[in-house]
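Sample pair:
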Amino acid sequence: MTEPVWNKFLTERDKAVFETAGYGTRAGFGEKPALLVIDVNYNFCGDTREPILESIKKYRNSCGEDAWDALPVIRKLVDVARAKGVPVIYSTGDGRADGWDRGGWAWKNSRNKEDLAPPEVRTSNRDGNDIMDEIAPGPKDIVIRKLKPSVFNGTALMGHINNLGADSLIVAGTTTSGCVRATVIDAFSLNLRVTIAEDGCFDRSEASHAINLCDMNAKYADVIGSDEVLDYLAGLDELDYNLPAGAPPSV
C-alpha cells in the first residue's frame, strides 16, 4: 500500500494519537454515488501547464503543475462515471462583474481586484470560471455556480442529490484545503458518505493539501487513490437515477 501523502508531515506523536484514538476508520462507499468535481477551472489551473510561480502571474489562484497532474485522473473518473450512468456534478465560481457580491473574498488577498479587470486588460482571454476543456461538462452533467467555498452554501446541490436519489459523493477537485474541505464537511454534516480521490485533488500549498487530506480522512471522509475509486465505479450494477434528459425535445 502506498504511504499516505500526509505521513511525511506528521510527527510520530501525531501518528500514535490518530491510531490510539481510533480515527481514520474506513467508512466505505455508498450504494448510489454521485461524482462531484469542485472548481476545476482556469482560475485554479491556468491556461497551460507551467510551474506555479509562473502560472500565478496570470491566474493568481492557480495551483500550477499539480492541477495539470490531476486533470487526467479527473478525466478518467468522469468517463467511468458517465459510462455507468452515475451523475456527474461540477461546481465553479460565480459573481457580479462589479464584485459587489464577493463579500469576504475581498478581505484576504492583495490581488483580488484583478478579478474585476475588464477583458481587454486581462493577461488571458479565458474566463477564469470556465471549467477546463479537458474535463468539460457533458449534456447530462449538472453545473453549479457558487459564491462561497462549500458547493452546498446557497446552492441547489442538496436538492439535486435528493432528486437523483444519491446517498454518497465521490469528490475530486480543488482546493483541497478550501472548497474541497468546506464541501466535504458540509456533506458529512448532512450524513452523506464521502470518498475523496486523493490524486484527483490539488492545492497551491503542498503542506495544506496533505494535512487537510489527513484531517478529512481522520474524521469526515475516506481518502483513497483513484484506482480504487475507478474499480468501485466499474463494478457498480446499473442503478436507477433521475438524470437530466441531456438533450432538448425534438420539434
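The helical segments are 12-21, 42-45, 52-58, 65-83, 157-164, 176-189, 206-219, 226-234.
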